[in-house]
Specification:
By secondary structure, the chain is an alpha/beta fold. Helices cover 27% and strands 12% of the residues.
Length: 170
């Protein structure tokens, strides 16, 4: 795990350790489709001597269903933050000591540490943070402004008590 932390840069989403992990020379990773470049896996394998098996999924629901059906053996799974709590309650994630002691953890911004879904970071750590930019046709934007003119004067309401919850994405 420490070699993995050195080779993969922490950036926010969540990375979690699956409940029945098996390491010793092999790393079984379950991550979003197209999130783990082949070149990164090859570089990691070359630098560490650890063989990586990557399985992918297209949604949190697919990830959850596979683990609920009894699929085991994953060392790392990468759910979106709002699925970490669900997976912990269902016993699908293993508690891990020392997440904050990982070498690259020092690069995790304070505002992303100890989030509400894992306040002690016993099961997950930030790994990805992203912003979504959508192109919008001017006619659609004009209609949207007309429809929401009154609501633009109101302060936005956060989805949870954590001030960055609206900024985290899968």
């Amino acid at each position: 795990m420490k070699k993995l932390a050195k080779s993969m840069v922490l950036a926010i989403g969540s990375f979690a350790v699956a409940a029945s992990a098996q390491a010793s020379g092999k790393l079984n990773l379950y991550n979003w489709t197209d999130y783990t470049p082949t070149e990164l896996i090859e570089k990691f394998e070359k630098e560490t001597g650890i063989e990586v098996t990557l399985d992918t999924y297209d949604s949190n629901e697919t990830l959850l269903a596979k683990l609920q059906s009894g699929a085991t053996g994953y060392d790392i799974v990468v759910p979106s933050q709002h699925f970490v709590d669900i997976m912990v309650k269902e016993g699908l994630l293993m508690k891990v000591e020392g997440i904050a002691d990982m070498p690259n953890y020092k690069y995790v911004d304070e505002r992303f540490r100890n989030p509400p879904w894992d306040p002690n970071q016993d099961y997950s750590t930030p790994i990805r943070w992203a912003q979504l930019h959508l192109p919008i046709a001017q006619t659609a934007m004009t209609a949207m402004v007309r429809l929401s003119r009154n609501s633009l004067n109101q302060a936005p309401q956060p989805a949870t008590s954590w001030p960055y919850s609206n900024h985290l994405m899968r």
